[in-house]
Amino acid sequence: QEQRQRLLAAASRFPLPSGTRFSYGTAGFRADGATMAPAVCRAAILAALRSAKLGGAATGLVITASHNPVRDNGVKIADPDGGMMDQRWEPFADALANAPDPDALLQLVLQFAKDEEIPLGGGGQHMAQVLLGRDTRPTGEYLLDAALQGINAIVGARAIDMGILTTPQLHWMVRSKNKGIKASESDYFTQLIDSFRFISTLLPAAFGSLEELPETDVLEFLTSNFIRRLLELVPKDKGGDELAKKLIVDGANGIGGVKLEQIKTELSGLDIVVRNSGKEGEGILNHMCGADFVQKERVIPHGFSSEDVGVRCASLDGDADRLVYFCMSSTSDNRVDLVDGDKILSLFALFIREQLDIINKNDDQANRSLPAKLGVVQTAYANGASTKFLKNLGLEVALTPTGVKYLHKKALEYDIGIYFEANGHGTVLFSEDFISQLESVSKKLCSEAAVAQHQAAMRLLAASQLINQAVGDALSGLLLVEAILQYKGWSFQNWCELYSDLPSRQLKVKVEDRTAIVTTNAETKVSQPSSLQELIDMETANYTHGRCFVRPSGTEDVVRVYAEASTQEAAESLAKSVADHVE
Ligand code: 16G
Ligand code: ZN
């Protein structure tokens, strides 16, 4: 009875304006922030139900609209493993968000709880718990209130407000909490800083004598006092090249820059300057800045100038789950040399591959070798040159449709799965089984005094600690990039030159009904209307290195066209002619 009343009360506090329609798309619900309260309240009810269904394991609710304009807002749910909510629940999310009145909502919840065997109405204090996070948007606090009321509408559910966070921080906290590991923000920072310092500053000389190594659990070891002492022996400031140390970070006037400011002084060998940091007067969230802007426009963000020519720069998006790098190469225009998600992926793949090769080098003892299934996952937007580069490294490259949930799922199939979208969202997933193999191999190598191999194993373990295992994370991605560059002694230029991107062009086409276009083969081919693929093939055949695909957007009411060819002009003209066929 109380359960019924609470649901009715919550639903009537945030009535759905007539004519509103929400859809749980690739990134949850999104709309103008001022209209989002009903959807947020209902998503919160769902997050509590999800937790109740899973025996009270914590779920997460993030209030953010990522790289979208500041007036927008959104909400999405994280599952107990820190990943996106199970797709099987998305249709119910839609139904709940669009329930026309309180009574309809109540009936939906009761029916769903029955179908899914979710215990409702009591069952103790910890029947359900939801961690809440939000970005810096002005509507965030108001929507937080709607979320709290949604969670309180489920009897026995507890809301834990984690405050203003990056999206990946909240996903990390949900995952850590359910694993029983320390899950506060300072735990997150400590883990990032320690593993960063480990990879970047662990010089061969630092491990002069392996007898000094304590026999201990390796992961514990990574954050142990021993390592801390060891790191203190390594000069914090390796001196050297000022340009190599300097990194300018465009924080998109969002939460990522704020968090980076908090930890930057602890990052040895790096001199980080944050621009568009979100401080009063510095600019508007995501406006003319941020990872999405830089990746799409390929020009310098607001707040940068010709004085920054030659300096390595990075750009985050508004909730810090996307990362790209760039560098201004000339003073004459505002164009940048872009290092997108594909090249970040390539750097990670190269590094991991190298460490595995070191471990397995001259291996005559089978018990030392570490056979690893290493795979990379991309989407059709990945630049053709990157895919070629990765295949030449001998790696398995898989393609999935656009959207983190698809890439993440595929990456879980490997011992080490690296996924990135060209837009800069991605991470590296290490399977638990592989981590334990790595730990035991590492111990063995340690007792055999195989220094180089042991260190390579430790570097991989440190990488698994550094890079967010729940979701793509710009802060941890940035630190892994910087650690690898320091470890390899590479400049930004060295990294850029891994391969040269094929010229490409993206267009969007407004159409009557974008759902009329249906794609297949990870969005590389159109299956309906069937004549369209023939036209695309015909156009593409006119160009050397030509590649082109179209897909309906999951976040906007448009059809997107992507074309690649050997020159910029050719890529533009291919995109244009295909766009004409779409119209
Ligand atoms: C969302 C997705 C992103 C994808 C983008 C594509 C998540 C968390 N985010 O932002 O991965 O690249 O949508 O947008 O899944 P589009 O469908 O409009 O091209
Ligand atoms: Zn984002």
Automatic annotation (TrEMBL):
The keyword Ribonucleoprotein does not apply. Substrate binds at E421, A422, N423, R551, P552, S553, G554, T555, R560. The active site is at S66. One of its GO terms (molecular function) is phosphoacetylglucosamine mutase activity. Residues 53-87, 127-178 form the Alpha-D-phosphohexomutase alpha/beta/alpha domain. Keywords: Isomerase, Magnesium, Metal-binding, Phosphoprotein. Gene3D superfamilies: Alpha-D-Glucose-1,6-Bisphosphate, subunit A, domain 3, Alpha-D-phosphohexomutase, C-terminal domain. Binds 1 Mg(2+) ion per subunit. CDD domains: PGM3 (cd03086). InterPro entries: A-D-PHexomutase_a/b/a-I, A-D-PHexomutase_a/b/a-I/II/III, A-D-PHexomutase_C, A-D-PHexomutase_C_sf, A-D-PHexomutase_CS, AMG1_II, AMG1_III, PAGM. This is Phosphoacetylglucosamine mutase.
